[in-house]
Amino acid sequence: MVIAAVGPEPPPSGRELLAAELRRLRELSGWSGRRLAERIGISQSKVSRIESGSAIPSLPEVKRWGKALEVSVETQERLVSLAEAAFTEVHPYRAALQRRGHLQDYVHEGEQRADWVRTFQSEVVPGLLQIPDYTRSVLALGETEYSPEDLAAAIGGRLHRQLDLYDPTRRFDFLITESALRWRPGSVDLQVAQLDRLSNVATLENVSVGLVPLDRQATAQLSHSFVLRDHRDEEQEDSVVVELVHGLVTLVGAANREPYEARWAKLAGMALHGDEARDFLAESIAHLRRSRA
């Protein structure tokens, strides 16, 4: 079955509901964005981003927003509930694909705003490091059956995301398990080419690749994959994106990020880095080449 890229609009997200309500309350009060920004201690540009749904305000900011506009206790409580819901957003693939043929541009929208991207991948080579034929094979094994046009666009979109790796002002760190390196969605030649690509990208000064071997004593569980996105701009919210079978879960707020920060630190301690990682990757490539001899 092919999941069509058209269909009914999915319901608004928690972020969109909060943005709409905050904007509605400000407009009802007759306040300008500039006046509100000055009163609650944020920039006018952040007010605009909050009301457009491109940024999520913190709970203290939401409370100050309501207090400045002198909303009722019931409205203030509703705003807090909306904000808490917006801190954890679920994006099912099926619903997202009703509006577009693939999700690479959608992922890139959030990814390109981050100055530091940390990716833990326990299952496959991360998308930012994939070669086209590896991506094609991975997508073919997923739950979504793409049309030929959408598949080509998805591969192109993933390659376009990789241009960010060559921006020296941004940082990309990867932790990849040995299982992810060994999982082979295609031929041995394809896997060799993919690991060669990984080895080459690891030479970039703003990219670090840590490899988590299976024969080291574990200090952390090898859980589902996740991505930490950090921003130098304090008005942009740092986030975690968790990859699940049915979709993506986006988490914001320090309390939500804390378990993932702790898990990242433990996994980084288990990983091989630098020369050790390069030697491990070279041996993995050599093993593959020997297997086809």
From TrEMBL:
Domain HTH cro/C1-type: 22-76
A matching Pfam family: DUF5753
InterPro entries the UniProt entry points to: Cro/C1-type_HTH, DUF5753, Lambda_DNA-bd_dom_sf
Any GO molecular function: DNA binding
SMART domains the record matches: HTH_XRE
Gene3D superfamilies linked to this entry: lambda repressor-like DNA-binding domains (1.10.260.40)
Stated name of the protein: Helix-turn-helix protein
Organism of this sequence: Saccharothrix australiensis
